[in-house]
Specification:
five-stranded mixed beta sheet, disordered C terminus, 249 residues, elongated, alpha/beta
Amino acid sequence: MITIKKLPPFTTSSQSGFTIIESLVAIIVVGILATAIAPVIALSVANRVQARRVEIAADAAKLYVQGIRSGTIEPAVSSINDTRLNAIAAPTSAALTCDNQDYCTAPPANLFCIDGDGDGACTNNSLKDMIIQSAAYHPGAIAGLTDAERREKLDEGYLLGMRVYRADAFDGNRTLVAGQVAASSTGGTGLRPQQAPLLEMTTEVVTGNTTFGELCASIFLANGGTLADVTSECSTTGGTPTPSPSTSP
């Protein structure tokens, strides 16, 4: 005798998967969200990279100033003159010949190398090497002085102006500019046809031969005084006042 068994009723599983349509909709939504936030992420990364570049440039400038003040780095004799930093042209973007913590032999513009990647030199394919353009200001360092006379002016104290450029900007494919700093947000490699320095600053270099009158003149001019008034303002402070410019680049 054949016995017929009744099948259990069909029930829908609680673990049923997504349909193809639902999966496609989810992919589209995720794509739209990714497209919306991608520029924000890219901008954030670019800002962080540029901030790191500026930090490296500041460290390079600090190392250079400390070396100048301690005497471990000699200031370039040819760099001292009676022209302020803001009137000195930017260097030329050309191939570099520079050893670490030494002045470059090419291009010649009082450029100093700070090697950031440890290979002993500054090259235009490095992302960490920094090139410092230095300019020493002394109002008595007029044109026509001998090197010995220029050294005497350096011994009296001076205002040291600096621009810090990326070494990879010296590839001959762009124009280096002065009087401004690179934008805080950059795309790609951050290099532009008109490349500004990462940092531009000035600082006072005082030696054992700097008189109090010379220091007074520097402070007076840094606070907005004029060369015409500096003698009367600093004549009673001792020594012959030798003014320096404003600390603005």
